[in-house]
Amino acid sequence: MGLLIKKYVDEDVLLGLWNITETYEELLNSLNFDGDDIKTLNTFNNYNRKLEWLSVRRLLKELTNNEIKIIYNNDRKPFLSDLSANISISHSKAYTSIIISKTKKVGIDLEYMSHRINKISSRFINENEFVTDSLFLRKYHLYIHWCAKETLYKICDKQNINFKKNITILPFQPRVKGKLEGIVKNESINETFILKYFRLNNYIIVWCSK
Fold it and tell me: Which domains are delineated in the chain?
């Protein structure tokens, strides 16, 4: 299926979503790699990890009409090698997402909603946050919180941030799509962010730009 979404979600903020239905060979043959790229690709033993890595590069090519290398710092934060834009990347099972902007900081998170979120919610939900008691909506509500916190962690450069202690998502009612506010506060950051989200089948996508 390939490209599902390519649209500007804010001024100078381009979001892309890719559905991985291609084989390894199809994705590989759609890209032009040098020796270093092939060497990196060959370090992955897991087939699905190879697909993820290739799909990120294929989606980036669709968004930029170019094949730009992605590099990472020591915290695994991605950058474009030519520094032409800020970028954030996320993938989960059959989907890959990218958000890019030339003028704004960006963050994105994509998650497949499994049942395990209930078991770990105490690790990232703090006493100032609201999660519905509705059995029908609780898992979805928790996933929005998790994705929002992951998104804020990325947009703040992954610096000294504990999901439970340093990020608070202000109370909101979960919907199919919407927006919410999050506060990041530690010794070096005290900022409020507006995030947006939507649900696609059993996936949740949250993004932010500032």
Answer: 2-103 (3.90.470.20), 109-209 (3.90.470)
pLDDT at position 186 is 93
Dig out the tokens for 7 from the structure: 């649209």
What whole-number distance in Å separates Cα of residue 208 and Cα of residue 23? 31
* H, E, C per residue of 24-73: HHHHHHCCCCCHHHHHHHCCCCCHHHHHHHHHHHHHHHHHHCCCCCEEEC
φ/ψ of 56, rounded to 5, equals -60, -45
Count CA atoms closer than 13 A to 1's CA, side-chain side: 10
Answer for the pair 67, 37: CB distance below 8 angstroms, yes or no.
no
For the cut 90, the answer to whether the pLDDT of residue 125 exceeds it is yes
Looking at residue 68, its amino acid is I
pTM of the model: 0.94
Give the closest residue to 144 by CA, choosing from 62, 82, 204: 204
H or E, element range at 119:
helix 117-120
DSSP-based three-state secondary structure for 151: helix
Residue whose structure tokens are 């996933």: 143
Residues in the chain, overall count: 210
